[in-house]
Records
---
Amino acid sequence: MSNHAWILLGLYLAILLAVVKPLGVYIAKVMESRGIALRWGQRAESWLYRLCGIHQDEEMGWLKYAFAILLFNVLGVLAVYTLQRLQQGLPLNPQGMVNLSPDSSFNTAISFATNTNWQGYAGESTMSYLVQMLGLTVQNFFSAATGIVVIIALIRGFARHTAKTIGNAWVDITRATIYILLPISFVFAIFLVSQGVIQNFDGYKDVTTLEVTKYDNPKLDAAGQPIKDDKGNPVTEPANTQVQTLAMGPVASQEAIKMLGTNGGGFFNANSAHPYENPTPLANFVQMLSIFLIPGALCLTFGRMVGDMRQGWAVLAAMTLMFIVMAVVAMHYEQQGNPLLNKLGVDMSAGNLEGKETRFGIADSGLFATITTLASCGAVNAMHDSFMPLGGFVLLWDMMLGEVVFGGVGSGLYGMLVFAVMAVFIAGLMIGRTPEYLGKKIEAFEIKMVSIAILVTPLLVLACTAVAVMTADGIAGIANPAAHGFSEILYAFTSSANNNGSAFAGLSTNTPFYNVMTAIAMWFGRFGVIVPVLAMAGALAAKKRIAVTAGTMPTHGPMFITLLIGTVFLVGALNYVPALALGPVIEHLKLFAVP
């Protein structure tokens, strides 16, 4: 690790940890119906509820809450699918983008509704401005709001006792969108515009590039004879004229919620490596901060709502420690360089620069890649396919942990709390005592829901990967043979089922086979976890609170943090080690094999 890498990581953590507490307290006040923000927007909020026929004071049991969440997201899928299928005849389409195929429309609709933002297409050559704004950007807000309200419902399950309800899903979604996501995104979008991110409705522009350097070709007339000026000198024309089409569009508004909502879907195919999405090192740094901002703040929201801030700090500490390890390993291996290129005489002292933007370099690219794969974001500022084998291993491993190290907005914390319940259950087995967490007994029903939530994602990843490598349609998409090709397929389904959305690249996924398979992985990877989490929230809310005794295990100290980290790593290792051995591990061993 270079000095720059250490300074970058330290500065990032210092700023992040300084801002998460005030934001976490603010989110708690909003979701608890308190604070100045609600008083300012109460009139508009009440009008919206009347328009939609929502009874603001009527709360829901977990089953009704889950049904509302599912219905809301199904409607989102239908809206995005319809817009894509009709985009050719809709306004704000200056480039005349044609309608998308049914399988691509289906995949994209599922992708943005599930906060995955997996993209099998190039945005600037596929989607009109209207579809980007009304379809994709709107779902960026709503999918992030879905994650927030699910974790709030789970927190209420811990905070309440002998209660039959966990909140009102429609009210929670409205408040998460209006008071949390919209105002922060508005400010962030203005900052991005100040850095050079574009925001317009112009048509695409054809420009002559700087490659016009020579003017030595004689200009010819209709008869093919050289044209001369008044002095008899031949008239010349550029020899290297290059015309490039520059895509325009409302980018900053989508970029802001793409990062804050841990969505990751880029306006452009190059995503955050594109200078119109991520133009400067400062923009890159703030984008990295924005990815972890709300997931980190929600840890303190958790502590505030359960009445013990130490609980929130303990979860945040576990996440931060795991993040540091992953970031250090990823940046370390990218700075080692490729031994094969070194043997060819290429100077690798600067590290593995393949697939990275020179304006960011290795440290900023490695840190960004670690953050985006841990946070269920999927935005990329470098090509993950070009990372060293163990660098790519870290990115895969980040997602395989369950996207719980900060993770997606809301989804990271409810995934981590699922592991926390598992951790206290394991501790209870060790000491022969009924496990408890935050004053609630953890019994058979909760463990069943925890088991489903933990196992559904690896089941989807491994099953879909197995199907892909055994079928002709799956193998047809591989551009790189052997272990790396397997890694590409494994990465694709790991990213889809964990609702990350990043890709190794090199795998042709915009085919009916991959569009359908990844859509299945995305949908069940999202709601196969949400439903058992909400069921657990309902069961916990109905329980009585147990008094703390001398035998109660503290869940806010170093011992619990260590147990929680061990549980996360152990479950990840047991599920994925064989698959990882067939991909990045064997690739690393072959690359560094003794000749």
---
Amino acid sequence: MNTHMKVYYLEDYPKPMMLGGKIVEKGYLALVLHTHLPYVRHPEHDEFLEETWLYEAITESYIPLLKVLERLVRDGIVFRLTMSFTPTLVSMLSDPLLQERYVRHLNKLIELSEKEVERTRWQPEFNENARMYRDRFYEARYIFEEKYGRNLLTGFKMLQDAGRLEIITSAATHGYLPLMELYRDAVRAQIKVALQLHEKVFGRRPVGFWLPECGYNPGDDFILQEEGIRYFFTDAHGILNASPRPRYGVFAPIYCRSGVAAFGRDMESSKQVWSAREGYPGDYDYREFYRDIGYDLEYDYIRPYIHKSGIRVNTGIKYYRVTGKTHEKKPYIRRNAVEKAAIHAGNFMFNRERQIEYLYSVMDRKPIVVAPYDTELFGHWWFEGPEWLDFVIRKITYDQNIIKLITPGDYLNIYKRNQVSTPSLSSWGYKGYNEVWLEGSNDWIYRYLHKAAERMSELARAYPSAEGLQRRALNQAARELLLAQSSDWAFIMKTGTMTQYAIKRTKDHIGRFTRLYEDIKRNSIDEAWLRDIEYKDNIFPDIDYRVYAPAPSPAQPRMQVV
């Protein structure tokens, strides 16, 4: 635990290096937020339990982070941050049906929070928190409905256009690319479809690419290079086990033989933030995630605000703090938690300063420390995470001169020549390779995914210029295959959470694809049935099934040297 973590103040820091009267930083920090949720949209149901994953993330992570970043801009703070937005999440945030359902969800939370303010009127230790939640829900509704017209992507695009964010993309449905190597056309389709949607939404091609689950398979970088991508990320061992061995470890990028740069995750800075056991989120003053009034209060009282089936669910209203490894949790005190976030931000900055100072002394270039996190950590899992990020950026701006916040794209503009090396196959999953997505609970899915990928390429070759109903069926077959390939389903099967839902999603998409394949081949497409699944699985409205057509011969390797 970091409960008794030492606090360092400005006078403890060494004096910055000066060059010609100018302060010169000794290294760089790249904060990277990976923003992803699986595509969950069920118009056939009035209320669907798994859709709340999106609603919780909007209320607890995306809106609070947007507020923090906008406030930094308003205060004139110059910063650079990298955020990935996966195409599945972009599609959901842009979807009118889900936008409408989120407003309905938020209105129920506002009603519940008003009742909570009244219920806790004689409990001051809880009433203050009840008022906080009520105010947050009202503000969330204002930001979502009035400020951004129900599409938060507008706010993030504005930050991109203002030069604060480097927004990158990921594979179309977050498919785990290393396990698609039998059919590279499927890998290419995941990448090309993603880039098309990203450019449509954010108005420009991304310079970077988040490999789903940081899953790198040697050779996939050539496809990224064909599409103009400059860099991607791997976990630390993907770089450290590269061949030949990288001279600078994970503290400088390497160029693959394709010319695309690979940046490695710094484990020290990452673990300090995301680990509930060893990192900041486990501090006793922070809010306890697992004590929610959806489970704590009497059933009859909470019944109108949980799932209509009667299943108890999280409401987001939580009154307790971590306290320690005990069931007797103490009330959450917001001001103490925010103060602790400031302390931890100072500690994080101090540790990065010492780290960068050492690296600067042994490297012949300025190091870059790459610290990637899941965006939903900030606010959803770690309630004080957005405040911590706010403090970190402000402290780096005002309280030191060792570190500069940049993006990987910025670093490649500074250091255009880098060592050529090939990262090893790797991921950031348990044990670092493919096991999370290929083991006893989920290995059965791949014979179907491989066969469907083979058949999709067959269809793209056999019908190069389809029109009308046939073209609609071919495009829908491509959507169903992409949705079946989502890494989230295999991950959920492995972790054992919502397993039946993940199995059903896999079987549904494979089943729909198989029927479409057979109907197309027999020229017997059922238009009514096709229209129904187009309505249910409406992701990527501009998709062109010919993205699965065989690719031209690969480009020659493009070398970069130190």
